[in-house]
Amino acid sequence: MEPAIAVDDLVVDRGKRRVLHGIGFRAAPGSVVGLLGPSGCGKTTLMRCLVGVQKVRSGTVTVLGEPAGATPLRRRVGYVTQAPSVYTDLTVRENARYFATVLGVAPAEADRAIGDVGLESHAGQLVGALSGGQRTRASLACALVGRPDVLVLDEPTVGLDPVLRHELWQRFHELAAAGTTLVVSSHVMDEAGRCDRLLLMREGRLVADDTPAALRAETGTDDLEEAFLRLIRSASMEVA
Ligand SMILES: Nc1ncnc2c1ncn2[C@@H]1O[C@H](COP(=O)(O)OP(=O)(O)OP(=O)(O)O)[C@@H](O)[C@H]1O
């Protein structure tokens, strides 16, 4: 089966610094790929490459068989940045319907997306008057409007309580079961265990690319946080 995402030898410089040093991985269609690693290791930069908004020094990024950022992908790839990108002076429904108009889909799609993130009861509220977690969900609703085939989510659960986090992860798995490929960055280890595959990054390099079960087996611990610490330590020793 052709991968939904194929990245090879990806090198990116930001300013004068090299921030990605030859990254390569595959994401199968309908899978949830977790992107983990310490702050500043390059997760957001890699996500920007997947959606085609990052200048790339060398290497290739192919999404749904097209070069990342290609025009046909515009409707097929959804991106939710860390800072919610919604208009604060519009209501949740107006924001989602605006996206529906841009994508040329029916307004009902916008209402469905609002339901998907559990914001029906706040649909008529101005985004500026929502809590941080509600704003994050409003942003996610907008990304869901066009039913994208690939969803790139930069720390989508930051600021959400455990119940909402659980609900959103359920939603992610439903989307994956329906064929959407999700790439989700996170700092939260219990979320790592919910992914089909994990990419662990450190200083712009992949330290691990495997299933949670395989990473647990490789490191000899059931605790993914401990597993990651062990992998990062052994990667540091290899570099030294
Ligand atoms: N606009 C920019 N110009 C120059 N360097 C940048 C820029 N944005 C990020 N960087 C650098 O690129 C590197 C990777 O940053 P990136 O935002 O991809 O990390 P991250 O893993 O997403 O971090 P976090 O978990 O804190 O969000 C960091 O060293 C950062 O300082």
Automatic annotation (TrEMBL):
GO MF annotations, alphabetized: ATP binding
Q: Which residues form a coiled coil?
A: none
Domain (ABC transporter): give its ranges. 5-228
* Classification via Pfam families: ABC_tran
Keyword Nucleotide-binding listed? The answer is yes
The record's keywords, sorted A to Z, are: ATP-binding, Nucleotide-binding
Keyword rRNA-binding attached: no
| The protein's name | ABC transporter ATP-binding protein
